[in-house]
Amino acid sequence: MRIFIAILNIVLSFVVLTCSLYSPSQMINSESTINKNLTNFTSSDESINPFVLQVEQIKTIPDKIHVGEEFSINAIVKNTGMYPVTFIANLCDSELYAVFDHKVGELPAPECKMMSSEPVILNAGEKVIVQRISGISGLTYKALEEGQSYAKVILPFKINLSEIETIDSIVDNKFNVTIKSELST
Question: What is the domain-level CATH number for residue 114?
Answer without folding.
Answer: 2.60.40.10
